[in-house]
Amino acid sequence: MSTRHLTRLAAVAVGASLLGTAVWTGPANATALPAVPPQPVQLAHVEAYPRQNVLPVWPDDPNDASIPIGVVPYDEIAPKLNALQADSDLVSARVAGKTVAGRDLYVVTVTAPETRAQAQQQEQWKRWLEDEPVKARTNARLLAEYKTPLFVNANIHGNEWEGTDAALRVIEEFATSTDPAVADLLKRNRLVFNVTANPDGRIAGTRANAAGYDLNRDLTIVSQPETNLIRELTVDAKPIITLDLHGYVSPTLLHPSTPPHNVNNEYDLFIKHALPNALAIEEDLRDLGYAETQRARIPFRDDAPGVWDDFPPIYVPSFALLQSSIPYTIEAPLNPRGNLTPAERVRRSGINTDVHEVAIKTSLRYIEENRTQVIHDQAEVYRRGWAGEPLRDIPDGYVPGWGPEDNYNTEFPRSYVIPTGAGQRSEPAAARLVDLLIGSGGRVWRAQDGFTAGGKSYPAGTYVIDLHQPKRGLVNSLLEPGIDLTDRVADLYAGPAAWSQGLTWGATVDTLWDELPDVPLLRTYDGSAPGTLPGGTPDLHLDIQDASDLLAVNALLAQGVPVYRLADGSVVVPHTPTNRRLVHAEIRRHRVNFAAAPAGWSGTLLDKVAVGYVGSVEVRDTLLDNGFDARPVTAATLATTLTADIDVLFVGGTLNVATLTADNRAALDAFLARGGGVVGIDTAGAAFSNAAGLLTLTATAGQSLASGVVNVVNNGGPVTSGALPHSFVAQPVWFTNLGAGAIVDQAYGADPLVAGWWGTNAAGTNGPAAAAGQASIVRTETAAGNGVVLFGTDPTWRLHAKGLHPQLGRAILWAAQR
Ligand SMILES: [Zn+2]
What we know:
The protein is α+β, with helices and mostly antiparallel strands. The chain has 26 helices and 33 strands.
């Protein structure tokens, strides 16, 4: 890498008089926006049932990890479903998506045949439940003939196999049954199966998908294609009950959960059904007759607060609850992995399959026996949303075991506004957030005129979220800050304790507590960022405030376009006709906003950046999502991987300098001697910095459970100029005893915790009071010319906090070249 310190004094831009007049140029304008945004399926396009497809058959795989467990291997699923479709008009199967590795995701619907008119009527009724809930639940025909949906999500964790086998068993039994009771059941119900939500994990015998992600932490981030399908099915099928089939907890574990409960739910309407159906499942498990199924564990009944909660909507069930479904995690009891005889493995997987079968059939029976009430209550959630009613106070003893520890409520604002134009810090971030809300079942509108609300003026096109909408709980859960849980629980099943896409995904979001903007609104079905190219021939300026901006910058650098970084971390591309054309192409691709460069700008010429990273798949994918050339590096391979073309070493996991071999140490020393940049996160980054003698400091970590949204103070400069005033932490780290030359780019606020959980040890050394005012991002340049930036916040965690990505990208660009 070269540590050039080139500066360039620009001539006054010819187009400076056009500053701020954003216009498109050239014929490309015609294709700048998606021609037809995705819309809901028109009723006229709804097809009859069955909807059968011949599924492609996958080659036999003798290494499929399912085989020794005694469960169905992936390659046998498609032939089985093809045969069932050939024999039965009750089964409809389709390839509904692809895994990250390209395998087919199978969705099966089991229901009595429907003419096209009947299918359209069913779809109409399903929409009424949400759109006109009172009309729906008082409609005699709907109550008699609506096919209540049940959704089974199987095998989301790849090495928890048996949900798939139970699903296939129930599909086959119902498809081939001659029992009139089954025929009747299928006239009144629609069963939707995601047969294996994680085929790659099923075959490999891993919990995660092939990209390394736990799909059951991804429902509000949707970073993986498998999660996207689960979300789509959960939103579109409108299931009365959702079953997410897992293993292995003994005895069988099933929801409802312990507190903390997500604060946005109409919990009364959930728990009144969830608990009795859980008790019915427990009883039916007992009747299986196995010694191992004589009792169940129902966390709501059996566990202390925080042990098995439904707080963050990152899980399938907690996400489905916000859709007005009655959801369950079912943990089958017997782990078939590990050092067992083949016979014992098969015995265990057989019992687990029976357990999941019971969960499916008992839940169906519950819907059958309580049909009118569950339809009424699903609609009641939507009715309360439309009416904007406050959440109910649920009295102690509402169901057995309900007490003060279970009461978690929020207050809903009247509306949210996501500005467009000058009031929006990042239009691509705003479009991403709007897409997340809509994809999650929320409703978003666009103002047809300019308006003033809450003392601010907004242009036409501004996104408005009227929170009087059926899934207001889901929308609010993504946008509100969250609550401080610290004093209420001492444990969580898994973090985060607060997430707030509204505060951490990089878009400006305004909350209107008592006001719905008085302006004509048109419902929109996707977010859009037009991107802007200023008219005339100015040098082109881009403020990096989103991953989209980094994608554009990195693409321009890869094409050899000169890009200069200004002191505040923004960049300028000098005008030439070629540069302008290439910038225009990146604007169309990434929807970013270039402006005319400030007169008399000066900056540092950047070069294409190669990043060697130590860390998880999340580190890898964050770098890739921001357009960096990312290459894996490990402590054991530095001699061969920390090559001469690597500009920045990203320490996103432990890199222990003291235990390096001589060859690997020499490679590191050579990298540092030539001025290589270093960006690190958390205690691992700080430990490396200390051990390598770069920037000495003390890094203190909060407790492992500490997580959430924090206040930060940004001090400007290349890394945090224009950064969000909030950040995201998952075990926060702060830096003290800073060595000479350290610059604090960002510090925790005086009262750091906005929302989440951040407890304090007895000594008082690891709580928010200890972190208040301390550095969260520090930077230095060493005598050898190494640019070093250390983060105590968590910009890569599960690819969640999109608003932190520009800080990370700016840090990498700065560390690479100054
Ligand atoms: Zn699981």
